[in-house]
C-alpha cells in the first residue's frame, strides 16, 4: 500500500528498514498470506514513526512486535452424534502482553489456520491499545465448523477444546471471548467446562458471558453499536449524519445485526445484508426482527428472508452485494470480502464512507481505491474496537463483583469510540497524513505498546 511518500532521507531510510522487517516476516512465516497482509498494512503506516523516533528502532520494537510471544496449537478430539471420533485443531496465539493480559476472541470456522489466527492476534494488539483499556493482544479458535452440528456436538467439541485451552488462560493472563462461530452458546459451554476443571468461579476468564453468570450488559451489542458510533463521528467530521443515508451491511451475525439496529435507530435505511451463501436486497429497508429471528433463534440461512418479505430479492454469492448503490458500506462478515474490483464498484456507485465491522474485510488494494477516491475510510482496528472495549469493561465488573446498567456501559462505549476516533485523527495529522485513519489508528495503537515495551526492557 503506497501510503508513505518518500520525501526525506529519514523517511526513505525508515521505509527501507520497514521493508527489511517485512521480508523477514514473510521468510519466517511462509505461505501465511493473511498474516503477511496484516503486517504489511501496519508496517507501512509506521514508517513516519521510525523516521521521527530512533528509539523504537534502537530497541528493535518492530522485530519483537511481529513475533508472537507464544503460539499454542493442540489436538481437539471429540465424539459426534453417530459415535464417531472426530479430530479438530485448536489454536491460541498470545501475541503481546506489554499493556495487559492477552485479550481476543475465539473463532470456530473451517478456514481457521495459523495464518488467520496470527493476523487476527496481530491486529488485536493495536486495536486493544486503541481502546485505552489495559489489555494485550491474543486470538484463538479452531477449524471446527459449528454449522449443521447439534447442540450436543457443539457442547462435546467445546468441552474438549476448553480442556486443553484451560491450561493457558486465566483472568490475569489470557481472556478469550467470541468471534465468528462463537457466541453466547459456545461461551456458556466453555465457561462451564473451565469452572469444572478449575473448581472455582473465576468469572473474568472469558467475556461475552451470559447475564446470569457475570456477563456485561451491552456486550452483545457492543461491536455493532461501536461501529456505528465510530462511523457517526466520521460523518460528523464531514458535516453529515446517518439520517436518511442508504447503507449496505454484509453478514448477518453478531456484528451485522447490532450495526443494523443502531444505524436504523439513527435514521439510516439498510438495504442489504448477507451470509456466506448469498445476500438479500430489500429496497424497502431490511426488517431486522426477521433477520434476528432467522439468525439468532432459528440458525437458518439468510435466503429464508425473502419468503417472508416477497418484495426483497435474494442473490447467490457474496461479492455482488458491493454493487448495490449506497452512501455508506459497513463490511461485517469476514476478511478480504472487498477486493479491488468491489471497491471500484462501490466508488462508481457513489459510496462516501466505508467503515469496517469485520477484521481486515478490505484487501490492501481495496483500501488504496478508497484512499485515492476520497472515500472516508474507517479501518477495522479502530472502527470495530467497541466489542473488545466492552469485554474489558466486563472484566472490570467481574473484578469488582458488580454489574453496571445498560446505560452506563453504553455511555462508556460511546466515549471510548469517540476517543479512538479523535486519537486516530490527531495521530494522522501529527505524522503528516491528515484524514488518513489507517495511518492514524495504526500509529496511535502502536505508540502505547511500543513505549511500554521500551520501558520494560528486552523481554
Ligand atoms: P458471526 O459468526 O456472528 O457472524 C458472521 C457472519 O459473517 C455470518 O453472517 C456469516 O455467514 C458471515 N461469514 C462468515 N464467514 C464468511 C465467509 N467466509 N464469507 C462470507 N460470509 C461469511 O460472527 P461475528 O459477527 O462475531 O463476526 C463478524 C466479523 O466481525 C468477523 O470478521 C469478526 O472477526 C469481526 N469482529 C467480531 C467481534 C465480536 O465482538 N463478535 C469484534 C470485532 C470484530 P454464515 O452464517 O453463512 O457463516
Ligand atoms: O475481533 C475482536 O475484537 C473480537 N472478536 C472481540 C474480542 C474480545 O475479546 O471481546
TrEMBL record:
Record: residues binding substrate: 103, 124, 127, 178, 391
Domain of life: Bacteria
NCBIfam families: PRK09414.1
Signal peptide: none
Site residues by UniProt (Important for catalysis): 179
UniProt binding sites for NAD(+): 223, 254
GO cellular component terms listed in the entry, alphabetical order: cytosol
Protein name: Glutamate dehydrogenase
Pfam family, one: ELFV_dehydrog_N
Active site: residue positions: 139 (proton donor)
Amino acid at each position: 500500500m503506497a501510503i508513505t511518500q518518500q520525501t526525506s532521507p529519514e523517511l526513505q531510510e525508515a521505509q527501507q528498514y520497514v521493508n527489511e522487517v517485512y521480508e523477514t516476516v514473510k521468510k519466517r512465516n511462509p505461505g501465511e498470506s493473511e498474516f503477511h497482509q496484516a503486517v504489511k498494512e501496519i508496517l507501512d503506516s509506521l514508517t513516519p514513526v521510525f523516521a521521527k523516533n530512533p528509539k523504537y528502532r534502537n530497541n528493535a520494537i518492530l522485530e519483537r512486535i511481529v513475533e508472537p510471544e507464544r503460539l499454542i496449537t493442540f489436538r481437539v478430539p471429540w465424539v459426534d452424534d453417530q459415535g464417531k471420533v472426530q479430530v479438530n485443531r485448536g489454536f491460541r496465539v498470545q501475541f503481546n502482553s506489554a499493556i495487559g493480559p492477552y485479550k481476543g476472541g475465539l473463532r470456530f470456522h473451517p478456514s481457521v489456520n495459523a495464518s488467520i489466527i496470527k493476523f487476527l492476534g496481530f491486529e488485536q494488539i493495536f486495536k486493544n491499545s486503541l481502546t485505552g483499556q489495559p489489555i494485550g493482544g491474543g486470538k484463538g479458535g479452531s477449524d471446527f465448523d459449528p454449522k449443521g452440528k447439534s447442540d450436543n456436538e457443539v457442547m462435546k467439541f467445546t468441552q474438549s477444546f476448553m480442556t486443553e485451552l484451560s491450561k493457558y488462560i486465566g483472568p490475569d493472563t489470557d481472556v478469550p471471548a467470541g468471534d465468528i462461530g462463537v457466541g453466547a452458546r459456545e461461551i456458556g459451554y466453555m465457561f462451564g467446562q473451565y469452572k469444572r476443571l478449575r473448581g472455582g468461579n473465576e468469572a473474568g476468564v472469558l467475556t461475552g458471558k451470559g447475564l446470569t453468570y457475570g456477563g456485561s450488559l451491552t456486550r452483545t451489542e457492543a461491536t455493532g453499536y461501536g461501529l456505528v458510533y465510530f462511523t457517526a463521528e466520521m460523518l460528523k467530521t464531514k458535516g453529515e449524519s446517518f439520517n436518511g443515508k442508504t447503507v449496505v451491511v454484509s453478514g448477518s451475525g453478531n456484528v451485522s445485526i447490532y450495526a443494523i439496529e443502531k444505524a436504523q435507530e439513527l435514521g439510516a435505511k439498510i438495504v442489504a445484508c448477507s451470509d456466506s451463501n448469498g445476500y438479500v436486497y430489500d429496497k424497502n429497508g431490511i426488517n431486522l426482527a426477521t433477520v434476528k429471528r432467522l439468525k439468532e433463534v432459528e440458525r437458518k440461512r439468510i435466503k429464508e428472508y425473502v419468503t417472508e418479505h416477497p418484495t426483497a430479492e435474494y442473490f447467490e454469492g457474496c461479492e455482488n452485494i458491493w454493487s448495490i448503490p449506497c452512501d455508506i458500506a459497513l463490511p461485517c462478515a469476514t476478511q478480504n470480502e472487498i477486493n479491488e474490483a468491489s471497491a471500484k464498484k462501490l466508488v462508481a456507485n457513489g459510496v462516501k464512507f466505508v467503515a469496517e465491522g469485520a477484521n481486515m474485510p478490505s484487501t490492501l488494494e481495496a483500501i488504496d481505491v478508497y484512499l485515492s477516491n476520497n472515500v472516508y475510510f474507517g479501518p477495522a482496528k479502530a472502527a470495530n474496537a467497541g466489542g473488545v472495549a466492552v469485554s474489558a469493561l466486563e472484566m472490570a465488573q467481574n473484578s469488582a463483583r458488580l454489574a453496571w446498567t445498560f446505560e452506563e456501559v453504553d455511555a462508556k462505549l460511546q466515549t471510548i469510540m469517540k476517543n479512538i476516533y479523535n486519537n486516530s485523527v490527531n495521530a494522522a495529522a501529527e505524522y503528516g497524513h491528515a484524514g488518513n485513519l489507517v495511518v492514524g489508528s495504526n500509529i496511535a495503537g502502536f505508540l502505547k505498546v511500543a513505549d511500554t515495551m521500551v520501558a520494560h526492557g528486552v523481554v
